[in-house]
Specification:
Chain B: Pfam families: DUF2017. Chain B: This is DUF2017 family protein. The complex is a heterodimer. Chain A contains three helices and three strands; from the N terminus they run βααβαβ. By secondary structure, chain A is an alpha+beta fold. Chain A has a three-stranded antiparallel beta sheet with strand order 2-1-3. The N and C termini of chain A lie close together (6 Å). Chain B is globular, with a radius of gyration of 17 Å. In chain B, α1 (29-48) packs across α3. In chain B, a hairpin with a 2-residue loop joins β1 and β2. The chains are: A alpha+beta, B mainly alpha. At the A-B interface, α1, α2, α3 and β3 of A face α3, α4, α5 and α6 of B.
Amino acid sequence: MGWRVVVRDDDVTTVHLVAYVLHLVCELPLPAAVDLMWQVHTRGEAEVDRFAGRHEAERLVARLQGYGLHGMVRAA
Amino acid sequence: MGESVHQLPTADFVDVVAAADGVVLRMSENAAETFRFVLERVVALLERGEAPESGRRLFGLRPARSAEQVLRQMFPDAYADSALAAGFRREHGEAQRAEALAAVRRVLDGWAGAVSTYLERAEVDDWLRALGVARFAFAVRKGDRLVLGGAAGKRSDLTAQWLAYLLESFVHTLCPSVVAATE
């Protein structure tokens, strides 16, 4: 069992900011960050990382929320 | 997601220009005063639990938001399950608020309301985090706007637009390739 970190869409954050924060915080290559951003935009959310431990997943969510993104933890 | 905010219907301005190892942030005096006021409201919220003027009762349709409600917009539920979400808040909530407050304070102390200032990358990161959470003192993540009309509602909308505009300006300057990749 693992823990998924997802980012949810909102009405305030622009596509550019979502992609940039995913690139910055999740250390994703820019094309991958842009792909995930489009998933967030079109599907309402996207899985941006996955962890074996819940604490690591929560730490990433706390960081994403620190930039204003709606990060959430889900059981895998 | 939010619509593009790279144009604002006003003579005031703010822009972000690339510079060696950082950026230069420039804005009109009125914009500087506005950003300073807004960030001070965020300090008051995070430090003293004072709700910003982000909504008010209008014909009984929508109550003003409490500080707790505003904070829940800034730091939303991390789990779909309410008990797990409450556990996350107990574990991380205080640190999240403290880190956001520290970022806003560093922005205010380092910038001091100047109309032109050079920011190193670490300082830019503080701006991104400060503005990123500050938006939700004046906007909701999903659904209706805060107030159905009225001066307070217009003010909140405009404040949120300015914050989003400045954030977008930072991203355009820091990472033009992210903009190109989404066009």
